[in-house]
Design goal:
Elements lengths: L2 E3 L6 E3 L1 E4 L9 H14 L3 E3 L8 H13 L6 E6 L5 H15 L4 E6 L8 H13 L3 E7 L3 H11 L8 E5 L13 H8 L2 E4 L23 H4 L3 H5 L2 H17 L3 H10 L6 E4 L4 H12 L4 H7 L3
Parallel strand pairs: 3-4, 3-10, 4-5, 5-6, 6-7, 7-8, 8-9, 9-10
Antiparallel strand pairs: 1-2
Length: 303
Amino acid sequence: MQQRALGQTDLQVSSIGLGCVTFGREIDKTTSFEILDHALELGINLLDTAAVYAGGASEAVLGEWMSERGARDRVVLASKVTGTLSKELVIASAEESLRRLKCDCIDLFQLHCWDEVTAVEETLDALGVLVEQGKVRYVGCSNWSAEQLSQSLALSEGAENLPRMESVQPPYNLVQRQIETDLLPLCQDEKVGVISYSPLGAGFLTGKYRRDGQVPEGTRFDVIPGHQAIYFTDEGFAVVEKLSEAAESSGKSMIELALAWTISRPGVSSVLIGARNTGHVDQAFAAEELLADAAVMELLAGF
């Protein structure tokens, strides 16, 4: 398992990170603990959660696991705040997260989404208070555009009380590649870490969906139909068909190839995977091993 520097911080994060959104929502505490144990054993150290995940249950499960296993110092702990990001709400949310996580400090505290209501200066001021108090080590953002990140970086530059965004968390996969235009170049220029998510396109890149529009009952695209507008396009299905051909010619699964493509992308610090069982963690490790396969990487270079 590779370890990569995150932005300008002293944090070293695993090239595969574990997204904890399933904990307390789709899987119970016992299964969550099994996944966390397995991930840590294999070398995953980045654990990403959020206050909004399962109404705080994800953080609570993670907090219990770290406490019972004595694992806090072995992981890079990331969480997020969402909503109207006023100074009061940001500080209160961080303190509530710390209580659920059963720890004194969050390594990476992220703004879950851009807030159109609150001035970004006020939000950064709140984050600065948390850093000064030692409750947060570094701050980052999620689902921000290059323009929004650039605005925040400009405000932080030269301001002692406004912390710098050290990471951004965007969706990135073989279909959703918009960040290649401006966000990735900005992050490379400004030395901002990139923690990408949705490497399988919410399951679209597994090959379970077809152009006929039939959506299997109970799948992510059935439960969250909004995903269809992003992926159910001619371009999206063309990628799936090409990926299917690559899987057939290489003898690797579509899942492994899609994951390997994202893990190998320049400028990406860590790729978050979701898991409902330990096998989902294993398939990500199988994908990372493909980075040493020259023939497979040459195949993926054609995407």
